[in-house]
Amino acid sequence: MDDLLQEFLTEAGENLAILDVELVKFEQDPNDLAILQNIFRLVHTVKGTCGFLGLSRLEAVAHAGENVLGKFRDGELTVTPLAVTLILRCLDGIRAILGVLEQTGQEPAGDDAALIAELNALASGDAPAASQNHDAHGDEAHNDDSGPVLNEHGFPVAAELLAEVAQALAAQGIPGESLIDVQAQADNARRATESAAEEAMLAMMAAEESRPQTAAAASAVVSAPAAASNVGESKDSALAGASIRVSVDILENLMTLVSELVLTRNQLLQMVRVREDSEFKTPLQRLSHITTELQEGVMKSRMQPIGNAWSKLPRIVRDLSMELDKKVELVMQGADTELDRQLLELIKDPLTHMVRNSVDHGLEATNKDRVAAGKSEVGKITLKAYHEGGHIIISIADDGRGLNAERIRAKALSNGLVTEAELTSMSDHQLYQFIFRAGFSTAEKVTNVSGRGVGMDVVRSNIEKIGGTIDLRSAPGKGTTFTIKIPLTLAIVSALVVECAKQRFAIPQINVLELVRASRNSEARIEEINHAPVLRLRDRLLPLVSLNRLLKIEDGAATADDSRSIVIAQVGNTKFGMIVDRVFDTEEIVVKPVSSLMRNMPVYSGNTILGDGNVIMILDPHGIADSLGNAQLEETQAAEASKLQQSDSTASFLLFRAGGQEVKAIPLGLVTRIERIPAATVEHTQGRYVVQYRDHLMPLVPFHETQDWHQGDTYSVLVFTEKDRSVGLVVDAIVDIVEDRMDIALTANQPGLLGSAVIAGSATDVIDAGHFLTLGFHDWFGGVGHADAAPSDRREVLLVDDSLFFRNLMTPYLSAAGWKVTTCKDAEEALVLRETGRRFSVIVSDLEMPGLGGMGFARDVKADPRWKDTPFVALSALATQGIVEKSYDAGCDHYVAKSNREELLRTMNQAVNNAASVEVRNSPTPGPQNAALQPGAWRAA
Amino acid sequence: MMTADASSSATATKQSPFESATTDYVTFSMGKQMFGVPVQRVQDILVPERIAPVPLAPSEVCGLINLRGRIVTVIDVRIRLGLKDQRDPASRAMGVTVESGHELYTLLVDHVGDVITLSTDSFEANPATIEGLWKDFSKGVHRLSDQLMVILDIDRLLDIRVRN
């Protein structure tokens, strides 16, 4: 019998057994969507596989059943006992066909038109028709099936046996494929790439033949692997000498024992290490070696080449390419990469599904389309597997059309997954993640192959279940690549041990991206937004979660001022940091499940015993990310994306109330911290209010001069910090933080207000931070750069930026530093100035602007002799190497990150000084050693 | 000796009080009240050390200990039974380790007493006046000469869904 067919039978048998149970559950609780999803998937799987095996009769029945289930799922049909009965009969029909298939290797003759008609009638909402035929059908099905090959009593028994075996195995916690081959020698054994399942299947078939139709026979096979091995031997005696069969149970047990041994060894090593000279040292070393070898040996016995999971694929791709009339070439690289058999089983189905998807969706619809796109007629699917740092990377790449961002967008919108506003701020990469959502299919029509929206969500959840991650890259017209990263084995994982409030926890290394040490004085420091900690990391804001706070184990000893360690973790595409007190080493740990008493705690994925014998909990970054509220993280992502796409046209605003009911706003970027300060700590000196804040006196500026301090009250204070000075702005209440466009509609003449803007749907006063800062320190702006003193003669700067806010923010800042400022809202406006004959000492321009844009502006400036020699400083929020280089290519002389005001001032001064000295031709060539110009490396003008 | 299958052992203990034969009980006390669990269910008696706390766990979960390479969940029976007063800090709590549903638990109790053999003659069903949680966790009462001994239903005690 065909290997593929055997495997299919085993799988289908298992699925049907589950389906029976699930359907009954479902009938009792028709509102449980989770069960329905599961049922739908199972039927879908059966149907899908039938199609590839050319089992048209089975496929037709399953398809009809799936249709009805689909209607249930979409809520178009109500679930009635009658309908469920029909589905169950559909399953019986499938089972009957499977029974014959198993015995003869052929589908029985006949068709199931009546059953299919009933199902279709039900699907189209014609329920009564189903009830009429109900009784008649049962017989009919039997009549159909009792063709020449049918043993009337035989096949149901066989089917039941199959189900029984599957159930028995499932009960023992073993997947259906229960026996694996331990191969002593590789050469002959390699021939047995037919996986464990087939072997098991063969054994069972053989057992059935020798003792036909007795349930006892089947159970004998299950309980006695030896019997199975005997049968196997008779079939393939050449193989028998080189390999023996060992039940997976024994291997699993062995693995557990070895893991324990490893831990005990580690414990011993630790004990001996502290003693200088111990007679145990030498024997322990030997023990250590042997343990390591034993561990490797046992691991090896569980390892199988990934090619085993791929063996079905060429056939599937071939059949699919015939069916869809596409020319497809499947390239497989690294098939001999080995991984744990447990993992192999778990990734088999997701891989198959993804390859199917690549052929169906990934590649262009027809060969002609490919040729039209200038590609070879033959589509290429590349499957790659390789080891990388304790993980296995599997990639599935097609050279097809790439994901259709537009269609995903439309679909996400129609499914109500996002709002239009959210969509606009999403990057394509974020958009692509939607294909991992349940019920999300962008295929135009539902085909046999795919398009029902079952799939990528299952793929992702299966991969995440085994501690893996999946990501995708797609380029329109070039293709799509899925990358799966999974651990080598599930038994032992590498974990980072951290400490919070004197308790230790393990974090799986696979989720850890990097460690950051944050303290008040270092570049990386923890800031707070309404008590929510965040971290500025390489010009990105990273949400943080304090483990102490999350786990409610704050011991009060650690304060925010102490230097803390942050473990940056990545889950899917979300990145976040976990604040911990201390970070220890990484340790190899054996993951053990947590007690059922604590299984509903999403923050833990297990527990383990460390080398020193202590028990510690293993944190689950997935659970932590979830408990953070995905919304919050996604918001951050969206914000980040919008920053990338639209630069400064949207910004985060802090909304607050001060001196009245109306809400006021201030760009969040300007606020360093938000503090609650009790009135009792406020002191009054020299007509000013001050508070002791971080070893300094911080002036407090009330929003309204008539601020009165009620003893015993606590006031919200926005803290602005520049260099080592802080000013606190006292407000009444913090309202919210919103993300909105920075369109200041009305400019106010009132001091302290920049103007009004529509923020979060209502008109809001945007306050001028600069005004309050100078109230705190009169020389706030002027004092910033005393090291970089303004040029003695008043020089003129042309500031070009499309953001009114930014212009309003920078103008007082630059003027205070001694510059005369002229502003323009875009390049076009600036070029008009050039025509009027204006001259400037330096041009500072944003790169992201409508119209000509910063780059175009720079090119224009450098191409015309009038402003050619004026130093050109590019400003951008995007500090990538590519942008920096592009800006230099466009003719910009300097590049400064937009957020860095001090740097800008320094660069401006330097640029002007250099330009001046170039003019008198006595300056040394400005070289890259001019470190003050970081990050915008110097370019000789 | 432990029976491998928790459910079958549960049935066994459920029936035992009604058989005429005798049953051996491990006795322990909380405050003045004496409790008993069938000796077959008990794996180990120990004084737990180095209990690793589990943040966010239900309050009765004291933490985890390492018992010869197995991770054991430590349950404070005092909290589980809803006893208000604290354990006398001077006395060291003792642990009765039992298995339930293939998992090991150590029940933290005030004091562990002798193993006693009792016949079903002295057994009685729960008195009607017994209160809420205790009724859930008690399988019945043995009349001893000087006091009453409550037979704890370990599986219910460890079923976190049973709450008052």
Got a strand count of chain B? 11
- Characterize the largest beta sheet of chain A: strand count, sense, and whether it forms a barrel: 6 strands, mixed
Number of domains of chain A: 6
Tell me the radius of gyration of chain A: 35 Å
Distance between the terminal alpha carbons of chain A, to the nearest Å?
Answer: 78 Å
Q: What is the 3D form of chain B?
A: globular
Under CATH, the topology of chain B can be stated as: OB fold (Dihydrolipoamide Acetyltransferase, E2P)
Describe the global form of chain A: globular
- Binned, the helix content of chain A reads 40-55%
Q: What is the level-2 CATH architecture name of chain B? A: Beta Barrel
Q: What would you say about this model in short?
A:
Chain A has about 950 residues and is of the alpha+beta class. Chain A is built from 31 helices and 37 strands.
Write the layout of secondary structure elements.
The complex is a heterodimer of chains A (941) and B (164).
Chain A: H1 3-28, H2 33-53, H3 56-73, H4 81-104, H5 113-123, H6 127-145, H7 154-171, E1 179-183, H8 186-190, H9 196-210, H10 215-223, H11 225-235, H12 237-240, E2 243-247, H13 248-273, H14 281-302, E3 303-305, H15 307-310, H16 313-324, E4 328-333, E5 338-340, H17 341-362, H18 367-372, E6 379-388, E7 391-398, H19 405-414, H20 420-424, H21 428-432, H22 456-465, E8 469-475, E9 479-487, E10 492-500, E11 503-508, E12 512-518, E13 526-529, E14 532-537, E15 540-546, H23 547-550, E16 564-571, E17 574-580, E18 582-590, E19 604-609, E20 615-619, H24 621-628, H25 630-646, E21 650-657, E22 663-667, E23 673-678, E24 682-685, E25 688-693, E26 696-702, E27 714-722, E28 725-731, E29 733-741, E30 744-747, E31 753-759, E32 762-767, H26 769-776, E33 795-800, H27 804-816, E34 819-824, H28 827-835, E35 842-846, H29 853-863, E36 872-876, H30 881-889, E37 894-897, H31 901-919
Parallel strand pairs in A: 4-6, 11-20, 15-17, 22-32, 26-28, 33-34, 33-35, 35-36, 36-37
Antiparallel strand pairs in A: 1-2, 3-5, 6-7, 7-9, 8-9, 10-11, 10-18, 12-16, 13-14, 14-15, 16-17, 19-20, 21-22, 21-29, 23-27, 24-25, 25-26, 27-28, 30-31, 31-32
Helix pairs in contact in A: 1-2, 1-4, 1-7, 1-9, 2-3, 3-4, 3-5, 4-5, 4-6, 4-7, 5-6, 7-10, 9-11, 10-11, 13-14, 16-17, 17-22, 24-25
Chain B: H1 6-15, E1 22-30, E2 33-38, E3 42-46, E4 61-67, E5 70-76, H2 77-80, E6 94-100, E7 103-109, E8 111-119, E9 123-124, H3 132-137, E10 138-143, E11 148-152, H4 154-157
Parallel strand pairs in B: 2-11, 5-7
Antiparallel strand pairs in B: 1-2, 1-8, 3-6, 4-5, 6-7, 9-10, 10-11
